[in-house]
Amino acid sequence: MPMEIEHEGQKITVYTEAEVQTKVDDEVKGLKTTNQNLKTEKEELQEKQREASEKTRKAEEDKAKADGDVEKLNRLMEERATEQTERYNALMHQTKTEKVNNALNGVVNKLGAGGEYNEDLRDLLKVRFEFDYDNDSGQVKVTGDGVNSLAELEAKVKDGARYANYLAGSKATGGGAAGGQGSGVPAGKKFNEYSGAELKAIKEADASEYDRLRTQHYGT
Known about the structure:
Elements: E1 3-7, E2 10-14, H1 17-67, H2 70-111, H3 116-128, E3 130-134, E4 139-143, H4 150-159, H5 170-173, H6 196-205, H7 207-218
Antiparallel strand pairs: 1-2, 3-4
Helix pairs in contact: 1-2, 2-3, 6-7
């Protein structure tokens, strides 16, 4: 349940991290549904356009055959071959992108601390490593910094100090100090990531630390 906290004469509604995450998940789910519907409509339109184009080309081929127009037949055949190659390349690119993103997200979601930590970790890995998809073997390949597989990438991220701040557990143990002196609340989280009870404990134990967290989040 949201909790109201009074600060400087103003009442502030504070949501728990779980409540915020639920709201975000609902919004993301809605956006995904909308995007999927748009994608489906676009694919259906493209398929209708291809069918119409193919009917037109077939009619032209039939006429060229009847007229004995070899030059036109050759041109139409080249157009069809070019179109098929382009569609194949586009499909391969789409497949590669989806496979790579799924593999990368799998690593990040497995090891990351969630939320913005996952986003930052994903961006960092994209910069530091090269990802590719081998259609023949059906495997995602990773190279860079001594890594040659997804398993090695997981080990590198899990054991490397460079990535420690982004991993699960890092938010709760960052700095090894409490969120407020004597509060018993773990440090390392943002204002909106604490529960109402935790914020109350921090405020009672260390009002200045509570104000610092609040100002950092709201900007005032």
